[in-house]
Amino acid sequence: MYGAQLIEALRRRAAELRSAGQPGAAVLTQGLQLEFFGAGGERMRAAGCEIIVDAKDLAVVGITEVLSRLPKILGLYRKLIRSADEKRPALAVVIDAPAFNWRVARQMGKRGIPVVYYVCPQFWAWRQGRAKLLRKYVNKALVIFPFEEKFYRDRGVDATFVGHPLADLPAPAITREAYAAENQLDSAKQWITLMPGSRRKEVRMNLPTILEAADRLAADRLAADRLAAVRLAKDRLGGGYEFLLPVARTLDVSFIKELIATPTETRQAASLQENIHFVPEALPALYHSRAGIVASGTATVEAAIMGTPFVMVYRVSALTYALGKPRVKVPFFAMVNLIAEEEVVPELVQHKFTVENIVTEMNKIIPDGEPRARMIERLATVKARLQGSRGGAHPSERAAEIILKQISLE
């Protein structure tokens, strides 16, 4: 998403500079047309980028998982560098994916190609000493979280906070009723969005427990309805739960369905299937949902921006956790909590990621009351901090302006 947004913003800004004949656009006004190639997915391809390496092939998570895929990743890395040697770009923009991209940045630096890092590595969370890699190999760092600018500047990196690319997303225009009709949902029920992650490995680690928690929530709601001897006819959103599962573009629906159809020791595969609805986009699902169970990552930012109360969950392999936990240098795992500098959403990580804990926390934020209202209020504060003070410009537009200046300076 970030790459496609940036490409489109670069094209728009370059066209504006050419038409206005502004200073600093010399290389553009002399007839240079922007062309893009690199690592990315379908959105970047659609934006006009020649895809040398498919981002799906780099979508691994965790120390042990990276080691198992290392030969293939190294092959893709060499393929991208060979392409850069052939094409000789005026500038390299690397986006996120630090394990892969700082090596790309190093090779570009050796070749005299200036490097801009957009969506910088989260070295502030662990391995803080690696910030020196950016100082050595990156000409400009464009950061998307407000506290990152100071962190990197204090370590000698030329960093600028441009705002988070998702912070200005408007509320989805589709109404709840239209969304229900489009996705065969019951608008009289409360919806809960399940977001287990965007990589196969993390989905395998996260989804089974999320499904068990959803089973428990649904069973508890049904039992409460029966105990009351009514179907909550007077409740505007009564009558039980439906669970929405947006499928990330990096995953296949068949893979998710296979996991759902696989029974566990505590869950019958068929028990929940009729209540799970696959939906194509995360944002409308979050916006119209009562709450969410969301794996750590970008999805937590999306939930915050949509103002949807949620519980953050995450699990990695025992070895990955044992190796990584002592190196974590921040007080929170959830990005929302880091931005707020307090616990806005509960963090159920590793051994705390249990069905009982999920159900307990969800039952605090699903019903109306002080816990739900407090979380919604604090999520709005997080969204405001992500937007920053940019004079109305979208983060990708500000990033594009800085990148084009870097080209004109060379």
Describe the structure.
The protein has 410 residues and is an alpha/beta fold. The protein is 49% helix and 13% strand. The chain contains 18 helices and twelve strands. It has a six-stranded parallel β-sheet with strand order 9-8-7-10-11-12, with helices on both faces. A four-stranded parallel β-sheet has the order 3-4-5-6, sandwiched between helices. Strand 7 (190-195), helix 9 and strand 8 (241-246) form a beta-alpha-beta unit. Helix 9 (200-228) packs across helix 16 (355-365). It starts with a helix and ends with a helix.
Write the layout of secondary structure elements.
Blueprint: H1 2-20, H2 26-29, E1 36-40, H3 42-46, E2 49-54, H4 63-87, E3 92-95, H5 98-110, E4 115-118, H6 131-137, E5 140-143, H7 148-153, E6 159-161, H8 176-182, E7 190-195, H9 200-228, E8 241-246, H10 253-260, H11 270-273, E9 276-279, H12 282-288, E10 291-295, H13 298-306, E11 310-314, H14 318-324, H15 335-340, E12 347-349, H16 355-365, H17 370-387, H18 395-409
Parallel strand pairs: 1-2, 3-4, 4-5, 5-6, 7-8, 7-10, 8-9, 10-11, 11-12
